[in-house]
Amino acid sequence: MKRTLYDDDHEAFRESFRKFVATEIAPNDEAWAREGIVPREVFAKAGANGFLGMDVPEEFGGGGVRDFRFNAVIIEELMRTGNGGAGLGITLHNDICMPYYLSFANEEQQARWLPGIVSGELITAIAMTEPGIGSDLASMSTTARRDGDHYVVNGAKTFITNGINSDLVITAVKTDPTQKHKGMSLLVLERGMAGFERGRNLDKLGQHAQDTAELSFTDVRVPVANLLGTAEGQGFTQLVTKLPQERLSIAVAGVAAARAALDWTLEYVKERRAFGQPIGSFQNSKFVLAEIATEVDIAQHYVDDCIRALNAGELDAVDASKAKYWCTELQGRVVDRCLQLHGGYGYMNEYPIARAYADARITRIYGGTTEIMKEVIGRSLGL
C-alpha cells in the first residue's frame, strides 16, 4: 500500500539529509566504528545544515516546526544505509533528549541551553539506568542532596548513549531517598563539573560507532537552577510523559532497519547464483522474502499512524509500547532471516547485513525491554 505520511517538505528534507549521510557519515562509519565514537564535529555540521532541533522555536535557532515526521525521515535514511550506529547520537539528541528541554526547561534554561543544542555545540544525553537495577528506575540510588543553592549529587549511571561526547546530561536522581517514584527529580549535569567523571567507552556487541559510557558522580555540586520542572519530585512523571516518543523513535528505526535488510537481500538474491540459477528464484527464497515484505509493510502502516497520533498529541504509552515491542522483534527476525539468505557472506562484516545483525540485538532491550512493553500492554487489558 502507498504510504501517505509525508508531503513535499518532508521529501525535500529527506533528499537533503540523504546527501548529508552520503558525504559526512557513510564514508567514515567504519573508521568511527573502530574508534568507538563519532567526532563532535558531526553534530556541528548536522546543526549547521538544519538537522538538529527541527522542533525548537526559531528564536533559539531551531526550525520552529513541531512535526515528528522530520525526525522519522532522519531515522529512515540512517537505517537505509546501515549507518544507524553512527547516527544514533543524533537521533537521541533530537528525539529523546530534546523533548525534556522543550517541555520542562524554564525560560532561563531554554535561553541558556537551546541555542547550543540546536547548533550542535552542546551534545545531549539522558542518564537513567544504573548498574544492577535495569528497568527498575524507582530503585535508583543516585542521590541529590540540597545544599543552599546547589544539589550535591552522588551515584553512578551506565549504558549512557552519547556518554563520552555529551555536554548536557539529563540525570535521574533521588531528591528524596525515602520515596520511590515521588522522590525522583531530573537534574541537568554539565561537562566540567567537579566530581562528574566518565568511565570507559563500553565495548558493545554492535552499534560500534556510538559512544556508550559509564558515568560517576562524587559530590558533584549542581546549581538548583539546573532542575527541570517547577519543583522536586516530578522526575518520574516527566520520564513517563516522554517515553512514548522515545519508544516510537526506536520503533521507527526497527521497521526502517527491517526494510533496509529486505532491500539489501532482494538485491543479493537476484545476483547470487547457485545450481545454475539466481538463489532468489528458489521457492524458499520467494516465500521467506514474501513473508518479510508483508510483515514490514503491515508494521510500517501502524508506525505511521503512531507518528500521526504523536503529532496530534494523542500517542499513549500503550500504543507506543506496542510499536516498540513489535517493530524491534520484527527487526530481529527479519535481519536474522535475511542474513541466512546471504549464506556465508552474511557472516562477513564487509556486508551491511552482518553489521545490521549485531546492531539489531540491543533494540529489544534499550528504551524498555520487550518484557516491559508486554507488561505495559498487559496492564491496559485489565490484567
Structure write-up:
- The protein is an alpha+beta fold.
- Helices cover 50% and strands 15% of the residues.
- It has eleven helices and nine strands.
- It has helices at residues 8-25, 29-35, 40-48, 68-80, 84-103, 107-119, 235-271, 283-311, 317-341, 352-360, 370-380, and strands at residues 124-127, 143-147, 150-161, 168-174, 184-190, 196-201, 212-223, 273-274, 277-278.
- The strands form three sheets. It has a four-stranded antiparallel beta sheet, with helices on one face.
- α4 runs parallel beside α7 (235-271) and α7 (235-271) runs parallel beside α9 (317-341).
- It is globular and about 80 Å long.
Secondary structure elements and pairings:
Blueprint: H1 8-25, H2 29-35, H3 40-48, H4 68-80, H5 84-103, H6 107-119, E1 124-127, E2 143-147, E3 150-161, E4 168-174, E5 184-190, E6 196-201, E7 212-223, H7 235-271, E8 273-274, E9 277-278, H8 283-311, H9 317-341, H10 352-360, H11 370-380
Helix pairs in contact: 1-4, 4-5, 4-7, 5-6, 5-7, 7-8, 7-9, 7-10, 8-9, 9-10, 9-11
Total number of β-strand segments?
9
Mean pLDDT: 97
Helix content: 40-55%
DSSP helical segment count: 11
The secondary structure category is alpha+beta
Biggest sheet strand order reads 2-3-7-6
Tags for this entry?
4-stranded antiparallel beta sheet, alpha+beta, 383 residues, 3-stranded mixed beta sheet
In short:
By secondary structure, the protein is of the alpha+beta class.
